[in-house]
Design goal:
There is one protein chain. The chain is mainly beta. It is 0% helix and 56% strand. The protein is built from no helices and 11 strands. The chain is elongated. The N and C termini lie far apart (41 Å).
Length: 119
């Protein structure tokens, strides 16, 4: 069993900040990439930011310079620091973990955390 649990969402005014956290636990090991996706109402889920085990990162253009992804490999945890939030950042944010329980690498997802940015 693998658990992926997000926390840190909420309601914030435009220009404000939030920090999301996501921890993977259970029988998962050999975690490779960790990332954050988001899905706004009526839109497809999109990649927001991703970080490899070695620390390489990539971001969707719309958050570049405002969001920072980081991870603690010892704690199997990934963070997303979101600054200068805009109403268009409103979405459910999902944590994604690519790891193995002993065989093939698989994608594991959290349940999602709501981020709402008011104008």
């Amino acid at each position: 069993q693998v658990q992926v649990v997000e926390s840190g969402g909420g309601l914030v005014q435009a220009g404000g900040s939030l920090r999301l956290s996501c921890a993977a636990s259970g029988s998962i090991f050999n975690i490779d990439a960790m990332g954050w996706y988001r899905q706004a109402p009526g839109k497809q889920r999109e990649l927001v930011a991703r970080i490899t085990r070695s620390g390489s990162t990539n971001y969707v253009d719309s958050v570049e310079g405002r969001f920072t992804i980081s991870r603690d490999n010892a704690k199997n945890t990934v963070y997303l620091q979101m600054n200068s939030l805009k109403p268009e950042d409103t979405a459910v944010y999902y944590c994604n973990v690519v790891g193995s329980t002993g065989r093939a690498m698989k994608n594991y997802w959290g349940q999602g955390t709501q981020v709402t940015v008011s104008s």
